[in-house]
Amino acid sequence: MEHEEIEKYIGYPEMTIVDSMRKIDITGSGILFIVDPQRRLIGALTDGDIRRWLIKTGDLNINVSEIMQKNPYFLIGIDREQALKIMIEKRMRALPIIDEEHQVIDIVFNTYNSDHNVYSISQRLKDIPVVIMAGGKGTRLLPYTHVLPKPLIPIGDKPILERIIDQFCRYGCRNFYLILNYKKNMIKAYFNELNYKYHLEYIDEEKPLGTGGGLALLKNKINGPFILSNCDILVKENFSDIFEHHIKSGNRITMICSLKNFKIPYGIVHTGSNGTVTLMEEKPTISFFANTGCYIIDSEILNMVPDNNKIEFPEVIDNYRKKGNSVGVYPISEASWLDMGQIDELEKMRKSFEGM
User: Fold this and answer.
1) What is the pLDDT of residue 155?
2) Is-contact 50 21, C-beta < 8 A?
3) Measuring CA to CA, which residue among 186, 142, 139, 140 is closest to residue 161?
4) Where are the beta strands (DSSP E) in the chain?
5) Which of 261, 271, 326, 339 is surrounded by the most beta carbons within 10 Å?
6) HSE-CB for 337 with a 13 A CA cutoff
7) Percent of the chain with pLDDT over 70
C-alpha cells in the first residue's frame, strides 16, 4: 500500500470525534489507526468505539486520544498474505503492519469477513417484522409524485421501496407491512408482479394518518419489537447490531440518528453585554444528530397511538418520552444515511447506486 493510501486510514490523537467520523466516512473502512507526531502507532479507533462513546455521553468534541484503543493489534515486518491468513482466523477487519521504529508501513483489510458478507446471510432478524410507512403524497418530490407514488420512484433500476425491503432481507427479515394510502393500487400492482420470497401485507389507510397514526392499524397484528422505516430513506448500517443494542439498552424506542455536518454560509458574530463582540466565526460548521426516520420499537407503543387520528411519529415518541418511558438513540455516521425526501437529495441517492 502506497504512503498516500495509508494516510487515508491514519488518525491523530488531537482529532475530535467529529473529525474522525468524517475521515472514516470517506474510506468506509470503519477504522482509523492513530499515530503520534513521529508517525508511530499508538492506538486504533473503530466506528464501534465512537458509537459506544456517543451513546454513553453524546459528546462530539473530545479528542480521539480519550477513547481510542491504546494497545492495538499489529504485526512487525510480515507480508500481506500472512497477515490476511491471521485476520481470517481471528475475524479481524483490518491489521496494521509496522517496522522496527513502530511506524505504519502497510495496512491489510480483510474483505472476506467484511460486514457485507457476514451479515448478508444473517438470520438474527428473521422473526422481526418491518413496518414501512408508504402512504404519503411526497409533496417535496413534485412533480415526480404527480405521476408515481414516492415508494415507486426509481433509484437506479429499482424503486426506493424495493431497495429498502431488499436491504432488510439481507439481515434476515422476512415479514413486511406496508402502510398505504396515496396511489396505493400502483404500489400493490408493482409488488404483485414480483416473484419475492418474503411475506408482504398491505395495510390500507382510509384517510391520511401521518407517519404515526397509521400504526394504530397494526394493533393485535404485531407482538414484540419491530422495525419502523419511512419509505424515502436508506440506512446503510448493521441492523443486527442495532437490534442487539435496542434489546440490551432496555429502550422501548430506539431512534436511529445520523451525524449531520452543516456549514453555515455566513460569518457568525457572538455578542456579549452592551452589544460588544465576543467572538467571530467565518462560515463555521455545526454538527448535530438528525432523526433518520428509522426506529426499533416495542409493540406496546401501538396501544398509545389513537385510532383514526392523524399524528406524526415524532409526536408519538415525545408523548411517550414525557411519560417517563425509555427512548434512546443509536448514532450512525453521515454517510450511512441516504434520504431522498427532496429533489437534490434524490439525485445524491441515485448517484450512490450508479453502476450497482
Assistant:
1) 83
2) yes
3) 186
4) 10-11, 31-35, 41-46, 75-76, 94-98, 104-109, 130-134, 154-155, 158-159, 175-180, 199-204, 226-230, 233-235, 253-263, 267-271, 277-282, 285-297, 327-332, 337-339
5) 339
6) 21
7) 91
Asked if 228 and 297 count as a contact pair (C-beta separation under 8 A), the reply is: yes
What is this structure's pTM? Answer: 0.80
* Nearest-angstrom CA–CA distance, 293 and 338: 11
Is residue 179 within 8 A of residue 205, CB to CB? The reply is yes
CA atoms within 13 A on the CB side of 333: 25
| Grid cell at residue 324 | 417517563
Between strands 199-204 and 154-155, the pairing is unpaired
- CA distance to 154, 158, 162, 348, 350, per residue, from 354 (Å): 12, 12, 16, 10, 6
3-state secondary structure of 177: strand
Mapping DSSP to helix (H, G, I), strand (E, B) and coil, where does residue 202 land?
A: strand
Per DSSP, the three-state class of 331 is strand
What DSSP state is assigned to residue 112?
T
- pLDDT tens digit sequence for 34-51: 999 988 999 999 988 998
Q: To the nearest whole number, what is the mean pLDDT of the chain?
A: 85
Short-list 303, 336, 295, 296, CA closest to 320 = 303
Distance CA 4, CA 28 (A): 16
Closest CA to 14 of 36, 47, 40: 36
Quick check: 120 pLDDT over 50? no
The stretch 227-243 carries a mean pLDDT of 90
Q: What digits encode the pLDDT tens for the residues 184-215?
A: 999 999 999 988 889 999 999 999 898 889 99
Q: Degrees (nearest 5) of the Cα angle 171, 176, 181? A: 140
